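Backbone-to-sequence.
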């Protein structure tokens, strides 16, 4: 049985930046459910994939030096331990990960046509499609089965997980591995990082739920690594059932989740109350700052900040504008609340008093980059794990 425990109100497509107020804007009711059978946490309403992932998709992994290093290190780890010969990535974005492997033996799946063109242009055969059983059959027919399938921040986008995992099982050789990274449900609950929830994230995974879903599709988790990337993620190593020894890290993560109460509805109801408290505190802080005459902007036009601003009702009256390095977002209006987005060199200057850390998951990188802003008396606001000035 599924239980709705959180309602974040009407939300837009998180990456749909508008060129003008005349544009039609799709919105949906962003609710979150807990399935007490599988222990899976999912959106109450899924958005049609083609509305989110298309030729206009703007998130580019290579824009962050943190993510460039992360994917290079990740590829090195996989190559050194597993020596893969036939690699496939699901959700290859601009190729930041797959470019660390030979283009002769690597294939990619990327439904966003603008990014699929990039990886095809540098020699990596990329299928501009959504992952499913039909695509798996096409990969097997054209390229053979894979000894390594990887995916980063993409499995949580897959609305039909049974089909997704079944297709992965079909595409793996008998002793192949499937390795993927996605935001951690446990970390989201601990940090009250409710902005991990938006249209693209159809699910937020616990190891518990993944184990239940993967097992019934012939796969098994044999290792779990906890990562700091994207505000707290898990790297899941999986294989066909019974083909590898299950390591202690799996049981350790399952135990931590059980201790926290990941399998109990009451845990999610408590989380929802914390989310409401966070909303009230953030709106109060921003309102007081504007009353004091301070200039407040947001740093990073992120999907996460789309959830926060629309849930909290934060618009141009509280945030003057958003600065972001992504050219595709500059000169546009933020989804839902229509806050202007401008390049940092045009607006992140000594007239700014305070900046909301919209890209809080890159806090370390940002604080290092903006040391001058802090030295001159500027301050950042974060809402993770609680609303405060840093």
């Amino acid at each position: 049985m599924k239980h709705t425990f959180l309602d974040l109100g009407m939300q837009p497509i998180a990456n749909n930046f508008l060129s003008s107020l005349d544009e039609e804007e799709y919105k949906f009711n962003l609710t979150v459910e807990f399935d007490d059978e599988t222990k899976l946490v999912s959106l109450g309403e899924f958005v049609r994939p083609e509305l989110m992932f298309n030729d206009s998709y703007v998130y580019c992994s290579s824009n962050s030096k943190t993510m460039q290093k992360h994917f290079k290190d990740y590829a090195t780890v996989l190559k050194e331990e597993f020596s893969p010969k036939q690699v496939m990535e699901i959700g290859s974005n601009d190729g930041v990960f797959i470019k660390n492997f030979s283009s002769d033996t690597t294939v990619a799946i990327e439904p966003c046509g603008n990014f699929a063109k990039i990886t095809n242009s540098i020699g990596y055969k990329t299928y501009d499609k959504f992952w499913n059983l039909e695509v798996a059959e096409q990969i097997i027919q054209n390229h053979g089965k894979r000894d390594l399938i990887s995916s980063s921040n993409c499995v949580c986008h897959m609305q039909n997980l049974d089909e997704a995992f079944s297709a992965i099982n079909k595409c793996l050789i008998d002793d192949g591995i499937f390795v993927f990274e996605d935001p951690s449900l446990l970390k989201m609950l601990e940090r009250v990082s409710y902005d991990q929830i938006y249209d693209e994230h159809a699910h937020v995974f616990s190891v518990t739920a993944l184990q239940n879903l993967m097992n019934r599709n012939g796969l098994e988790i044999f290792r779990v690594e906890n990562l700091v990337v994207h505000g707290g993620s898990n790297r899941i190593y999986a294989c066909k059932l019974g083909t590898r020894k299950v390591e202690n890290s799996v049981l350790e993560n399952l135990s931590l989740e059980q201790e926290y109460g990941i399998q109990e509805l009451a845990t999610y109801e408590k989380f929802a109350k914390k989310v409401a408290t966070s909303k009230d505190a953030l709106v109060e802080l921003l309102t007081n700052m504007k009353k004091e005459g301070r200039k407040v902007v947001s740093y990073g036009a992120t999907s996460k900040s789309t959830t926060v601003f629309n849930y909290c009702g934060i618009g141009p009256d509280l945030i003057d504008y958003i600065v972001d390095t992504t050219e595709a977002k500059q000169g546009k209006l933020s989804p839902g609340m229509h806050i202007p987005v401008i390049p940092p060199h045009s607006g992140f200057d000594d007239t700014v008093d305070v900046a909301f850390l919209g890209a809080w998951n890159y806090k370390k990188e940002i604080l290092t980059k903006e040391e001058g802003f802090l030295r001159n008396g500027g301050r950042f606001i974060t809402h993770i794990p609680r609303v405060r000035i840093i």
